[in-house]
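Researcher: We plan to redesign the surface later, but first we want a full-length starting point. Tokens attached.
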């Protein structure tokens, strides 16, 4: 029964959450370590003390803090799924907050890597022009892939884009000339139908609105063409957008508004990224590091 629950969980995060194969493999590994730890206990026998013991076990095995953090997140998501499927009556994972000291630093591209990635789509056909506009817009605004897929033609002006984020909250994000130019090229040269203002901005060759999975797969393809060794997804462009703004002096509150974060603490993790880069630069170039 436990193996069936894990299989159902993996199917759920694969089909309904649209996670990458790499992320799904990480979840499967982490849940496997947890199941090995609890041995043959049934779900009903597991308590919050069991999870605490699991975390203590991981620390005792000298796992890195970031790994312990990730495993805790995996267990929390798994228990949330078990509660949703009525396998358990109480979601034990909700009692555990991920300590800030364990927060994972997001993957970020350098400006040179972003330029290389954005140069990959060829704008001489429908797909290439559309994908160029998608990549430019993701980096120019820091919007989520799900938000991009909901955009209508009327949501984009010459200087701003209107985004509907989590909780259907709308926000307006400034957008640069390069992204607008790519969007104009795509619309003028390759959207041959009569354009209505409420029509989806980005569509497939069959005229259907794009899904997050399609956007994810297109980004992955161009990452391969660019020869980037990092694990890159549409969200990486969001992280890079925020980090590059912060590094160039943008106010954290403004970045929070553009990203659509309710809590400034969520945006604050980008200060860790820039802090790490400053430390690396100091170690590399200071005569007495």
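Model: Full-length starting sequence:
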């Amino acid at each position: 029964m436990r193996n069936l629950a894990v299989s159902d969980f993996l199917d759920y995060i694969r089909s309904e959450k649209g996670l990458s194969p790499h992320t799904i493999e990480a979840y499967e590994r982490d849940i496997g370590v947890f199941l090995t730890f609890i041995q043959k206990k049934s779900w009903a026998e597991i308590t919050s003390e069991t999870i605490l013991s699991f975390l203590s076990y991981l620390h005792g095995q000298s796992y890195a803090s970031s790994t312990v953090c990730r495993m805790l997140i995996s267990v929390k998501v798994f228990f949330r799924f078990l509660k949703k499927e009525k396998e358990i009556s109480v979601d034990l994972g909700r009692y555990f907050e991920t300590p800030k000291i364990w927060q994972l630093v997001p993957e970020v591209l350098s400006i040179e890597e972003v330029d290389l990635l954005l140069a990959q789509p060829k704008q001489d056909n429908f797909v290439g022009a559309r994908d160029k506009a998608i990549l430019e817009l993701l980096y120019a605004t820091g919007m989520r892939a799900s938000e991009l897929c909901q955009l209508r033609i009327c949501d984009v002006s010459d200087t701003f884009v209107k985004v509907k984020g989590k909780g259907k909250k709308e926000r307006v994000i400034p957008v640069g000339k390069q992204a607008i130019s790519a969007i104009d090229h795509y619309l003028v040269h390759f959207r041959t139908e009569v354009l209505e203002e409420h029509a989806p901005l980005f569509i497939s060759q069959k005229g259907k609105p794009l899904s997050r999975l399609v956007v994810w797969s297109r980004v992955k393809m161009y990452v391969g063409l660019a020869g980037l060794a990092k694990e890159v997804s549409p969200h990486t462009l969001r992280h890079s957008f925020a980090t590059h703004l912060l590094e160039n002096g943008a106010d954290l509150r403004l970045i929070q508004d553009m990203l659509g974060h309710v809590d400034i603490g969520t945006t604050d993790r980008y200060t860790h990224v820039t802090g790490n880069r400053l430390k690396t630069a100091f170690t590399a170039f200071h005569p007495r590091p």
